[in-house]
Task: structure prediction
Amino acid sequence: MIRNDKNESVVSHVLPSLPYAETALEPVISANTIGFHFGKHHQGYVDNLNKLAAGTEFAGFPLEKIITMTVGKADKAAIFNNAAQTWNHTFYWRSLRPKGGGDVPAVLKHKIEASFGTLEACKKEWASVAMAQFGSGWAWLVLDGDQLKVVRTSNADMPITPGVKPLLTIDVWEHA
Ligand code: FE
Result:
């Protein structure tokens, strides 16, 4: 941790760059939507996180550590929400790619078939889980032990249970 002469952490969180151009997901997601989502919303979460962490016990801590220290604590909801949304959006951008789709790699296809029956059934369940989210949140494909599952979380929450690994996510907030 780097500290200044007042013993305050001077390391702050930064917005990771988008892994493709803002126009790269058109016509599925417009450059306008990505511009706002990345440049305003995601940047806003990072900025708020830095403001909330400055001069506190969380200053200079890595993002994941702040999330695990604040999850489920009502008095830490503001910092949790901004830290979790910073993490979720970075994960979300990496869940998408220009000219995506196509064939699923064989290992993943077997895993999907073992867990859902077919790729179509996986897509259908994931879509229905996403559509059934009431209000803001996320729909995740996760690896839970040996099984693939789809789960949804509300607002800034993410699957954080030990042994559950997020693989892909869909942002189901209105701004997405
Ligand atoms: Fe979002």
The radius of gyration is 18 Å.
